[in-house]
Give the backbone structure.
Amino acid sequence: MRGASAFMVSLFALSAFAGEVAAGKFEALQERPRLFVLTDLANEPDDEESLVRLLAYANEFDIEGIAATTSCHLRQNPREDILRRTIAAYGEAWTNLNVHAQGYPTMERLSAVAASGQPRFGVEGVGEPSPGSRLLAKSIKSGDPRPLWVSIWGGANTLLQALRDCRAEMKDDELSAVLAKLRVYSISDQDDAGPAARREFPSVMWIVDPSYPFDHRDYWKATWVGISGDVRGEGRKLNLPFVELVDNEWLKTHVMDMGPLGRCYPQHLYCMEGDTPSFLGLIANGLGWAESPAYGGWGGRYEWRTPEGESHPVWTTPEVKDELKGMRSPGYSITRWREGYQLDFAGRMKWSVASKYEDANHNPVAVLNGDRTKCVVRIAAKRGDKVALSAEGSSDPDGDSIACEWSVYREAGTLAGGDLRADGARAVLDLSAIPEGSSGSLHVILRVRDTGTPTLFAYRRAIIEVRYL
Ligand SMILES: [Ca+2]
Ligand SMILES: [Ca+2]
C-alpha cells in the first residue's frame, strides 16, 4: 500500500471502528457515477435481465464500458453478440425514454463502448489484453476526478488484466492515485481472478462477499441474493414482502411485454437479476447509498471488515444483518426495498413504450428540511433533543397526490432509542430515551409515495449524529 491509498484505507478502517463513515470519504452523489460493467451474459438468463434494467436506467450513469466476459459458469466464448443485440433494442426505445427523462446516451455511444473481455476463464485467461480490458484500463487511467465503479456480474479476469496493464505502464504514485478512485462491486467471486486482484492490488476498494470461485456453493451467504433469491424453493415458504413482484408472471406483464427492450428480458430459471445489486445502489433515488455502502439502500448494506480467508478489509455482509418478519439474513438489506425497486423498474419500462409524457408515471420529488438535493442530510444532536424533520415542499411532476412515510432504519444506525413520531409531512425524532453517555447515529428514512400507475417513490435520508457532551 502506498501514499494516498494507504490513507484512504486507514480512513475506512477508522470509520468502521467508529460504526459510521468519516465525512468526505465518500462523495455525496451530485454527479452521475462513472460505471464499467463486466458480464458473463448467457451463462443463464439473469445477466440478460440485468442488462435490460441497466439500459432502462442508462441516464443515471456515465457508462464507460460494458464487456462480455467469462466466469465459472461460462468458461469460454463471451457473448458480445447478445450485448450488441440488447443495445440495439435499447436504440429502438431511446426516443420514448428521452420523453420522460434527460440524459439517455444514444445507442451509438453505448455500442462504441461494448466489447469482449478475456476470452478464457480465470487467472489463466490473463496475459494478453482484450478489447474489454483495454477499454477498462483506459477508464481506470482517465483523469476524471469522479470514482469509477466496476460492476462485476461474472468473472473478474478482465479487471485483473486491466489492473496489471496499468501497473506495467504507470509510475507508482500515478497508479496509487487512479486505484484510489476505483470502487469494485462484485457479485461473489465467479473466478479466481477476483481474489487474485484483491491480493495484488490491496488498495482497491471492493464490495464483495468472497466465495469459492469455481461454483455457486457459497452464494446463499451473499447479500445480493436478497434481490429475489426467495422466489423459489424453501425461500418461497417465508413469503417475504413483495415476492410476487419478482415472479416471472409479474415480470411478463410489467417488463417483458414492454416493447423492444422488454422483449430482450428472458424469464428467470433460478432467481431474478442476481447481478443487478452491483449497480442498483448507484441510482440516485435519494437513499444516498453511493455515499457509503454502510448506509444501506437498493444496493444492500455492507460493513468494512476482513472476511475469513482475506488478507485485508473489504465491504462485506455485516455481522448484524437486517431484519424482516422477525428473521435476519444477509440479503434482507436488499429485500426490504423490493416494492420500491420493482415498481420503479416497471415505471421505467413503461417509459420505454410511452411516446407522450402524460402516458406514464414519474417519480415524486422528496424535499427534506428544505434540502432539494438527493444527498444525505446530516443533523447534529444531543440526548434529550427533539429533532424536527419536514418533507414540506415535496411534490409530484404529474400532479399526483403524495403521501409521506417516515421510519428509522435501525440496522444502518448505531444507537438504540430515539422515538419517531410522524404526522404527514412532519416528523419529530425524540432523543430523550437515548442511553445516557452514548454517541452514535440514527438513520431516518423519508419515503414519498405517489398515486400514479405504477406507484413510484422518492426517498431521503437524515442521519442524526448524536454526540455525548
Ligand atoms: Ca452473471
Ligand atoms: Ca408521479
